[in-house]
Amino acid sequence: MLITPGKLLAKIDKPEDLRNLDQTALPQVCAELRQFIVDNVSVYGGHFGASLGVVELTVALHYVFNTPDDQLVWDVGHQAYGHKILTGRRDNFHTNRFYKGLSGFPKRKESPYDAFGVGHSSTSISAALGMAVASQLQNNPKRHHIAVIGDGAMTAGLAFEGMNHAGSTEADLLIILNDNCMSIDPNVGALREYLTDITTSPTYNKVKDEVWNLLGKMSNFGKSAQDIVSKIETGLKASLLKQSNLFESLHLRYFGPIDGHDIDHLVSVMNDLKDIPGPKLLHCLTVKGKGYGPAEKDQTKWHAPGLFDKVTGEIKKKVYDTPQPPKYQDVFGHTLVELAEVNEKIVGVTPAMPSGSSMNIMMKAIPDRAFDVGIAEQHAVTFSAGMATQGQVVFCNIYSTFMQRAYDQVIHDVCIQELPVIFCLDRAGFAGADGPTHHGAYDLAFMRCVPNMIVSSPMNEQELRNLMFTAQSGTIQEGKQAFTIRYPRGEGVMPNWKTPLEPIEIGKGRKIRDGREVAILTIGPIGNYAVTACNLLENEHIQPAHYDMRFVKPLDEAMLHEIFQRYDKVLTVEDGCLMGGFGSAVLEFMTDHGYVARVKRLGIPDAIIEHGEQIDLHRECGFDPQGIANAVRELIYTERAVTA
Ligand SMILES: Cc1ncc(C[n+]2csc(CCOP(=O)(O)OP(=O)(O)O)c2C)c(N)n1
């Protein structure tokens, strides 16, 4: 379905075309841009509310600044649809997030206007500062550098590290704080309270208005007048706010808060700020989902709603005749409450993903024992470690990809101190349409090499429940080892998933089927593909054995001895990186014990795999059911050819 842009938008192939318009045309551009986003996302899916909320900011930024020479860095990048549409990708926008199509996030390879690749939050200030300092070193004082960061992303330590550094430089850096009071779920923490205070303080706002009026009047009078204004402004702010402005105290000049939907005001303020040297922050107030009623009302649901009817606002859900398997995240959420109702020591921790991880189920059921700590993965892990020192049984749920942020905390704060924190890594394996920034490709490799760490992955909902049950049990909690349970995005395989809870012996796999010639060893839900592959091969009278290993660490050594004694052809399958992952662990076992076998490993190669449906990516990497069947055939027929 072709989406037709409005009249003005149709003529904007690059920001220069926008800059050639009269400022009076900008409200119309904003309206058309907003409509184009609604039209596209309703039909093709993607992130939604965040882009609607920054339509005016986006238009103003490209109107005022000389992009792409001026460097514009979006934080997270899920709000950059308007930016993509204005920067040469309008006619291709229907491919957004599709296999081989546009990326859902800014990406350097995709466009010169995407100054920095993103997906994970809170990198924009550091990146833009790096660019600003490089411009100084390269004697390019005219270039501007802008970081657009949300109030949610601002809660991460990395954002503060960036500001702390920026405040000690003279770099030309403009930080735009896009404050909509939301993360994916409502934003949390003291910073949010602070931003609300600053926004509503009558004294502060009076001073601010006076300063802005003065600045507006004086900015026509050239550089020295502006210097005077800036001194007055700093003096006023400092005395009236008693140095209490957080950003000012980090030596960032603070401006705002202003209405982030008033395009004329945004343009004039940004024009003024262009002439103010050094690091500065403009606080803009916006509404997530602005301009689309249902999205303004339920901002969490409309963060990424899926396909919807744009007229009625009804979100389209597939309807099935039979009961469907639940999402793994929901099995996690419900099982956690079930366990926590019995074991009072259990607590839950999530860094800003209550709905994404289904921790919100526990936050609702047992609010005082479930914590959303903001976008702060490092803190989430160390906070969990702290609680574990006091005997709490902590389920710390972090998306596999975001756990990369907290690796030092896993080693230094948890494993070295022998603390039995339970890490539930959601979205392990390919994340799908979110792409390489979000793929959970590395966790098996980076978790298994840390001492005092158990690493497991369930093949289905029942195993997830049983692993969670096992991890919180007294024996494990006294065992001084952390416990990783990784599972993928999306649905499992068991419509009747509420099975009785049973312990699983640590390091014990299970044989799914006996076979001949080849043994397939799998870890986690990808094992279900192996089941399908075995069924396909059955028609060709090929009967591989299949083992669901369940643990990558410790490996089921008894089972591996049995396998290497019986089979000289072994296939390992994992939805994680091949280097250092599950297959590597099996190879290590093989050489350590002197076995000789032909081992083929399927998994994610040493390459950046782009976005697409999970099944497309599995196919690309050769571990969809057909790929697994092919690998078995290859093992068998190569061997037969050699021996013939
Ligand atoms: C390191 C990291 N943790 C978690 C996420 C998941 N995430 C994506 S957007 C988002 C909320 C961002 O909130 P904010 O910066 O305020 O932007 P808004 O969506 O409100 O515009 C979160 C938590 C992420 N992208 N990166």
Automatic annotation (TrEMBL):
Pathway: Metabolic intermediate biosynthesis; 1-deoxy-D-xylulose 5-phosphate biosynthesis; 1-deoxy-D-xylulose 5-phosphate from D-glyceraldehyde 3-phosphate and pyruvate: step 1/1. Keywords: Isoprene biosynthesis, Magnesium, Metal-binding, Thiamine biosynthesis, Thiamine pyrophosphate, Transferase. It catalyses: D-glyceraldehyde 3-phosphate + pyruvate + H(+) = 1-deoxy-D-xylulose 5-phosphate + CO2. SMART domains: Transket_pyr. Catalyzes the acyloin condensation reaction between C atoms 2 and 3 of pyruvate and glyceraldehyde 3-phosphate to yield 1-deoxy-D-xylulose-5-phosphate (DXP). Transmembrane segments: none annotated. One of its GO terms (molecular function) is 1-deoxy-D-xylulose-5-phosphate synthase activity. HAMAP family: DXP_synth. This is 1-deoxy-D-xylulose-5-phosphate synthase. InterPro entries: Dxylulose-5-P_synthase, THDP-binding, Transketo_C/PFOR_II, Transketolase-like_Pyr-bd, Transketolase_BS, Transketolase_C, Transketolase_CS. Its cofactor is thiamine diphosphate; Mg(2+). Belongs to the transketolase family. DXPS subfamily. Its EC number is 2.2.1.7. Binds 1 thiamine pyrophosphate per subunit. Binds 1 Mg(2+) ion per subunit. The lineage of its organism: Bacteria, Pseudomonadati, Bacteroidota, Cytophagia, Cytophagales. NCBIfam families: dxs, PRK05444.2-2. Homodimer. PROSITE patterns: TRANSKETOLASE_1 (PS00801), TRANSKETOLASE_2 (PS00802). The keyword Metal-binding applies. Thiamine diphosphate binds at residues 78, 119-121, 152-153, 180, 292, 377. Mg(2+) binds at residues 151, 180.
